[in-house]
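User: Predict the structure for this protein chain, please.
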Amino acid sequence: MHAWPASEVPALPGKGRDLQIHDTATQGTITLDPGPVARIYVCGITPYDATHIGHAATYNAFDLVQRVWLDNKRQVHYVQNVTDVDDPLLERALRDGQDWTELAERETALFREDMTALRMLPPQHYIGAVEAIPGIVPLVERLRDAGAAYELEGDVYFSVESDPHFGGVSNLDAAAMRLLSAERGGDPDRAGKKNPLDPMLWMAARPGEPSWDGGSLGRGRPGWHIECVAIALDHLGMGFDIQGGGSDLAFPHHEMGASHAQALTGEFPMAKAYVHAGMVALHGEKMSKSKGNLVFVSALRRAGVDPAAIRLALLSHHYRANWEWTDAVLAEAVTRLERWRAAVSRPDGVPADALVEEVREALSRDLDAPAALAAVDRWVELQLASDETDESAPGLVSRTVDALLGVAL
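Assistant: Here is the predicted structure, written as structure tokens:
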């Protein structure tokens, strides 16, 4: 599966800073030192509706991670999946009378268009669950043969008790895990499971649903968590720098994935940092496909909203914050974009070397994009009121905003 085209990232004078990031597992801020190649895995969409503002906020956060690393003269090895077969996708296709593969392909194509418009840097490997199945089957067989998985009426489950570190990503107690498991695709009440929290690795073929050859597992399709594990281990290996996604993925998805990988390899941890973006609400409730309270990036673009304004609206909130999308949020971003463009359109102006360092410093501190925007705002105020004549300043500010914030002025 192909990703989307990359926008050019301007080179800035000097060098950026090491990234300090909040790690869900340790519940504190850690400083990452990836070496020459930084490795990041971000969980992708289930393509039955794409791309709403909640998605965009999540991918914007991890786009900033890439930009900080690139500014620090590192290469970035970025991997993202597409869950192009799963219950929600099949249910939506059945509801709408569509072929599930056509639905997945159409929504994935729209996601690519939105990511391109928002200037999100693409992954080097963009892998669908279906194309990953040949690599998933052997992992499930290994877990089963090692006693870390078991069969139940043809389905194969992972035993969470096989990983001594289980629970260390989300830091939740068993009662909270059980509630979230039921809400987020698990089946804690199924009779016959060794532990209510045990997640499915391989679902035996169901009538009327797609299935694939699973070798000794029989025909079926993979569970949600093992999909990402197979892709991450294949392309990044263990101990990669960041496992990323929305905060609703900390449990069960990232918790289970970490345990799968650790049980498979005997190594710990799967990722050095588990990084989670906050949720975006609309009309007082978390924006979600199940509730249908969505604002789509593509709809905003069709309405004539500049993608740079959409991106500025996302950047105006800290990536870990839960916040609400409103008309006022977008209007403020549109106004900010107009002022920034007016400021850099002047042929000369206020020196900007200090601004570059302010933006770098803000982003290195747990991706503090609102502080970075405030720094640019201060320069813009001075620029629009000043008669200074630094001919390099407007271009330097424009390149800085593009390189570090992904906003084209």
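The chain has two domains: 19-297, 326-405.
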